[in-house]
């Protein structure tokens, strides 16, 4: 059954270029799946975005936005107000996942393994190390590793980071977990597989923006070659995190695997996983025998089942 689909892309966050690439890929995939597709650029004028969506009169909206206002519950609220079914998670789940401090509290309450950490002000960070080094400084509500800094033992960058911080007056500080970067995508209520990510950075231990999106920025090993108990723990933790936040559609959970201490730490859940050619969700879906067009088609049909009725 062909559907009329609006692909919402762009946005005004620092992840706009990634969203445009996600939107382009998704739109092409949905056309290949036999749907009538219109791309809507969610720019700085919300009224214009609403007008464009009303003019499109879609059966369902594919939310391909990333970052603040796109995956934090804001645009989800607009779409709810308009009565339009949309892909991925609800207002509440999106807001919780985007707030790294709130989500880690949810994970801890659910018994999931999280790193030691706390929220600090920039004055506190400038004055002293809030945790033993090495530790990680993160914006509370950003995606794609924007603003993430690692303060290593012997580093003198702490005060520089505090002085140049552009993400509000607070940050989440967590212990640095050495080891490997693992990720697990959840589709519906089922974890797909585990990917081991090797970043092509100077240290090879930080999956930053370039590692995520630049060609050759990282190498993905699917499935991850890790001990079976760790592999299974990652799958179950991703499913539990997805459920604890109340996610729907698809999500992706990111982990650090500390091999020396045989521990797996949940870092965060992304409710709007990237859908570019180098993105992890399409890659894991393909490993499980789900093509890119099939994945996009499943997401829009799941949205109709979850938030609306199928058209006659």
UniProtKB/TrEMBL annotation:
This is D-alanine--D-alanine ligase. The keyword S-adenosyl-L-methionine does not apply. The keyword Ligase applies. Transmembrane segments: none annotated. Keywords: ATP-binding, Cell shape, Cell wall biogenesis/degradation, Cytoplasm, Ligase, Nucleotide-binding, Peptidoglycan synthesis. Its main location: cytoplasm. Cell wall formation. Its cofactor is Mg(2+); Mn(2+). Belongs to the D-alanine--D-alanine ligase family. SUPFAM superfamilies: Glutathione synthetase ATP-binding domain-like (SSF56059), PreATP-grasp domain (SSF52440). The gene is ddl. Pathway: Cell wall biogenesis; peptidoglycan biosynthesis. InterPro entries: ATP-grasp, ATP_grasp_subdomain_1, D-Ala_lig_Van_CS, D_ala_D_ala, Dala_Dala_lig_C, Dala_Dala_lig_N, PreATP-grasp_dom_sf. Residues 104-301 form the ATP-grasp domain. It catalyses: 2 D-alanine + ATP = D-alanyl-D-alanine + ADP + phosphate + H(+). It is found in: Cytoplasm. It comes from Asaia krungthepensis NRIC 0535. GO terms for molecular function: ligase activity.
């Amino acid at each position: 059954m062909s559907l009329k689909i609006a692909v919402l892309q762009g946005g005004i966050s620092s992840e706009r270029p990634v969203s445009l690439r996600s939107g382009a890929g998704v739109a092409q995939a949905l056309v290949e799946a036999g749907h009538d597709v219109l791309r809507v650029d969610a720019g700085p004028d919300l009224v214009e975005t609403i007008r464009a969506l009303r003019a499109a009169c879609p059966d369902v909206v594919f939310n391909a936005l990333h970052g603040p206002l796109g995956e934090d519950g804001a645009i989800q609220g607009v779409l709810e107000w308009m009565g339009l079914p949309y892909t991925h998670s609800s207002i509440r789940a999106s807001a919780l996942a985007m707030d790294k401090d709130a989500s880690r509290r949810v994970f801890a309450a659910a018994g999931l393994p999280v790193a030691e950490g706390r929220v600090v002000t920039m004055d506190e960070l400038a004055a002293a190390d809030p945790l033993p080094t090495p530790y990680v400084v993160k914006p509370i509500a950003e995606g794609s590793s924007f603003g993430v800094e690692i303060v290593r033992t012997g580093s003198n960058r702490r005060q520089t980071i505090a002085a140049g911080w552009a993400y509000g007056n607070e940050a989440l500080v967590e212990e640095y977990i050495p080891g490997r970067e693992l990720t697990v995508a959840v589709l519906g209520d089922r974890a797909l597989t585990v990917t081991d990510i090797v970043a092509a950075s100077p240290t090879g231990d930080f999956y930053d923006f370039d590692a995520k999106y630049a060609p050759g920025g990282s190498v993905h090993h699917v499935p991850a070659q890790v001990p079976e108990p760790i592999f299974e723990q990652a799958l179950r933790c991703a499913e539990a995190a997805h459920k604890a936040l109340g996610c729907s559609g698809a999500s992706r959970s990111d982990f650090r695997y500390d091999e020396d201490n045989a521990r797996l730490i949940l870092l965060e859940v992304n409710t709007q996983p990237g859908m570019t050619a180098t993105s992890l969700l399409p890659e894991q879906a393909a490993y499980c025998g789900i093509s890119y067009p099939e994945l996009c088609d499943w997401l829009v049909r799941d949205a109709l089942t979850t938030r609306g009725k199928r058209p006659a």
